[in-house]
Amino acid sequence: MKLLLKKFRNSFSRVPLMGWLLGALIAVVLEYYLGEPLADILMLPKIPVLFGFVIMLKKPLLIPSVIIFVLLIYALPIIAVARLSSPLTNRLAAKLFSLPILISVVIHLALLYAILHLWSDISAYRVLILKLTLIAVMVTLSLNVVNGYMGEFSCSHPGFMALGAYAASVVTVFLFVNDKLFGTAILPSALGPFMFPVALIIGGMVASLGALCIAIPSFRTRGDYLAIISLAFMFIVKSMIENLEVVGGPRGLSSQPDYASLPTVFLWTVACIWIINNFVRSTLGKALNAVRDDEMAANAMTVNTRHTKIVAFLFAAFWAGVAGGLFAHVLRYVNPSTFGLQKLAEVLAMVYFGGLNSVYGSIVGAVSLSLLSEALRPLEIFKWIIIPLLLILVMIYRPTGLIAFKEFNVMNLLKPKPMPEKEG
Question: Is the pLDDT of residue 329 over 60?
Answer without folding.
Answer: yes
